[in-house]
Amino acid sequence: MNQEGSVIFNLNLYLYTVSSCNKYCRNEKKEYFCSAYCKQFKVAPGTNKGKKMKRGFISLAAEIVSKRVVGSCLLLMWCVITVSAQVKISFNPDSGGKYEYVSEIVQNIKQNFMGQDMPMKTEINATYLMEIKSKTSQEIETQMTYQRFIFIISNPMMNVKYDSKAPDDNSSDINKMFQKMFNTMIDKPFTVVFLPNGSVKSVSGMGEIVENMLNAISADGQLAVLGSQMSQQFNDEAMQKSLGQSFNLYPDKAIKVGDTWSTENSLPMNYVNVSVKTTNTLKAVNANKATIDVTGEMDMDMEESKMKGAQTGTMIIDTSTGLPLSSDILLDMKGVVKTQGMEIKMEIESKAKMSVKKIN
Fold it and tell me: What's the mean pLDDT in 122-127?
């Protein structure tokens, strides 16, 4: 027993002694202290000193015990409040605010084609300026502007590296081609309208960006196929789905630690249906930061081609704005892709990171 416990134990013992003695004294119609109690302090029963000591001792004991009881009640109330405290998280950036939004996806792909292994690594890193133009309780209008774009492909047949902040005048012809195409995106704005749950109501302005990209490579007829693919990946609909996957993550009601909620999204891929089902769990809330564990499943369906995967990760959300301060998600997929009568076994490991920070 620690020191505090020992003191409380002795006080209870003394109070029991006092109670017993007083009961005996009352029964005997005596107005003096019980001798058994007074002996503890070497005070003669019935004296003024004995009576004062009794009153002082009982007052002190009552004060200590009452503080213990009140303290225990306050502790219990704090525990109940902590366990049941709820937080409402939604897409709620500051009106007129400016934010830097960074999205990074790195994929390692293992594929077997006609008995030959063909590994490939891709990286797409985009930095946007996100400006909040208008905000109501129903929707938030933002202007997004490409500030930096990185595109990397590495495989045994081809190596491409583009970084809008680090142009390479001595690069290969294919790198120069990507450089011409992606340079047209930088500093070009487009409009995104979000709903409070993070879903994207509409995207406009990507058509002009895609047109500029295609015009940059139109002189080379062999790049028509590439241009068509890029127009599929960067149009308004594709951007709407991509941003929806990033921000459509909020619960539809207030939540507390331990609560879970689910979201469903589709991803933009050429001629492929990709669905993502995600389960989110609120693990902790500390200093306006909510830590959320993410698990989920992904299905890719394209005619006879099928791939399945699982994702895990963690997000940290600013509870006041709902914006992801950081997000790290790992996705593993496996399956068979059929094309032109051939089967390609494929495994994809994808690491996705995202962050949003205020810059004004």
Answer: 95
